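so the lab meeting is tmrw and i was supposed to have these ready like two days ago... anyway. pasting both below. for each one the top line is the aa sequence and the line under it is the structure tokens. i havent really looked at them closely yet so no promises
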Amino acid sequence: MRCTLGVDIGTSSSKGVLVADDGVILATATRSHDVSRPRTGWVEMDGRVWWDEFVAIVRELLAAAPAAEVAGVGVSGMGPCILLADDADEPVRPAILYGVDTRSGAQIERMTAELGVDEIARIGGSTLTSQAGGPKLAWVAEEDPDAWARARRLFMPASWLARRLTGAYVLDHQSASQVSPLYDIENERWHEPWWERYAGRIEQPSLAWAGDVAGKVTADAASATGIPAGTAVITGTIDAWTEAVSVGAHEVGDLMLMYGTTMFLVATGAETLRTPSMWTTAGAFAGTRNLAGGLSTSGALTAWLKDLTGADYPELLADAEASGPGAAGLLLLPYFAGERTPIQDPDARGVIAGLTLEHTCGDLYRAALEATALGVRHNVETMRAAGADIRRIVAVGGGTQGRLWMQVVSDVTGLVQEVPATTIGASYGAAFLAATAIAAAGEAPAITDWNPIIETIRPDPALRTFYDTLFDRYVRLYEGSKDVVHELAAAQRGASA
């Protein structure tokens, strides 16, 4: 049976899927892992784990479906990440992860002063934040000079897998556009003056689009994985964009809402929209642009509450549903790992307001769900203010398995969400991109055939006024507590140092 493989390297796990050419899932596999947090604001991972887990997942998938004939391989991963490797493609230090790693504040400030905020936005599309890859490169150069002296190549999870599978040194345009400010978004190429200034010793990866074929599986990679030598491998991209592909939310006017360890939003348009509060990037496909945003915690916050209380998810969800809208008067700011968009504040911290001795674990869990929904609303309103034309919203990710969470998001935002049949996420999107890449002319599959919409979540109009008021309080709570919270964040950094 002809099929494609898709593997995605995520923040808390790697997931793989084997998919028949009609979109039917033949087998799935997962490997859990942890990130390292050696200091407050630092989030790292050993890049060698990405390949090790890829090999283990692929071998499990192939063993589960021995009749499968793998015709293409799709790769995807969290990002933007900064994994630097030497001439022999050995990592010189742990990979620095995306915007949840906030160590590069000094480099952001210095580069912004050197280049000018307006010029950075003109060339790269976005102002510099903890999400940007350029300041993370500068941090390594300044704070880990021994590693920098050995560094020769730049990888992200998808490009690392493509390199190990094919030998190609390539990065997709979407990922490259998040190595701000080193990518010229209008001309879709590396910005040579700034690359030379901040990353001159690093060999530039060639650029391709996510669904382009990066190369073919080498004999060595075939021996390690069991994938036949000569099998096509796509370039791949960052997981949120691959998730958008997996549910068909990558056309102009679409918004993809990804429920995961973090929450991510990607709005697709034809024009380059710029706002300092969000991230402007190249799209996954030629001719598209994205305005993107992300919460630093969502599933990570609910997992923290689960571990803290010792309750299981079904119990917490039942109690949260019983708690009802407003969580018995609680209001929570979900900034437990700083916050990315739209406040762009790495020193933000979690706040729980309104606590009394009468509140329960269910109230806290309900407040956490509402907090992530309020964060989504804050992002959507900021996108629309910047000119984003959002006509259709599609939900994806592990959090879509819980109906209550999605209903809360719709109620808080007033948005209708479409839910497709398969919400396994980026690994499925990577398999689809691989199937498209190897298809004969005129025979490429349609994602609407692979993954049709099966459910629609509609907001309760009776709750609109209530959540309008709560959103106003949410915004004011951040502004009112910000100064004290920043002092506490500084004290935390001192303690961890």
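ok protien two:
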Amino acid sequence: MGDGLRYIGVAERRARLALRHRLAPRARVTTPEAVADALLALHGSDPATVYLAIGARLADPAVTVAETDRALYADRTLVRMHGMRHTVFVFPTRATAVVHASTGLAVAARERAKLVKDMAKAGAPDAAWLKEVEESALAALARLGQATAAELAREEPRLRQQFVYAAGKPYEGVHTVVTRLLRVLGVEGKVVRGRPLGSWTSSQFRWALAPEHAELPLAEAQSELLRQWLTACGPATEADLRWWTGWKVTDVRRALAAIGARAVTLDEGTGYVVEDDVDAVPTSGEPWAALLPGLDPTAMGWQGRDWYLAPELRPALFDYSGNVGPTVWWNGRVVGSWAQRADGEIVWRILAGEGQGPGRGTGEDEVVGGEAQAAIEAEAARLAAWLGTTRVTPRFRTPVEKELVR
């Protein structure tokens, strides 16, 4: 490319993705912890995404639900908490201190200030009252172990206090202290979501005290988070890093320098990898197919997605807020979508064809032919087998997913 930096093309990026994101059959693992360690963060806004993302990467997906429940609620080796961009993720518990210090604290300060301001505008009790109620609620949660918001409010009735939000605005509403306070305590790293009230697809969670962790300096935590993410997802551009972390550009650049990240050349410009990750990765691996859920961390991993997702496919695959729906993958690129119908059937549709997709000019055959369709069908059968009688509807619906279930 003329700049002296090693060039990493589309084919190699897809080969890295196949192995490091545990999507190629030979790269699959045996435990939810191994999946989370490989990806660092599993999107948790839709509870089903966590299980579906793990199941797609396990050698034996039949153990997905039982083993993920064990990791989340018995062994607590995985934890569901707020992280980057104020989004709920599931992280390896070992990473909670890094996530909390690198991204959570700044968000938490804004959220607490906003809550106090909103309550003051509504004439609700002040910050000192809120702090007293908070301490009482945390003590109640310690006694109960886990509790819903309603159960906590029975223990501490002041949590039921309501106040008017955005009075006089078109979006005026009535907020309850317990709902807003638990959100603040979540981003402050004091509470986490516990076991749901229903099945693994339920979004009604109990709350629990967060696991204890060391308090890390901001710069140290940011450097470590960036190192772990680049290990899983490198190469990535500065824009990718800013988008994924939600940090300022100065924070990203400081962390890149601190970890000794190496610059490489990508089709879209300069990218970065961790210091010991410059060597070429073979691109001649086995063909593979995958059915990934909406908000899967691979599909949502980068801001610049042209190398694995053709721009012309995006209107069908994303909702109006930018959330990706269920995706069908073939050899490192998104080629379609899938859905589960009311009778449990897994249906899918190929959206990419000859001459489409980011593989143009790489020497790849863009036609999704017989081999690909057979592999996708096998993955659909694999998914249907472990879902059994469970029915899953994505929290964020996309145009093609809605069409498939009609």
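from a quick look at the 2nd one: Confidence is low (pLDDT under 50) at residues 354-365. The first helix runs from residue 10 to 20. will dig more after coffe
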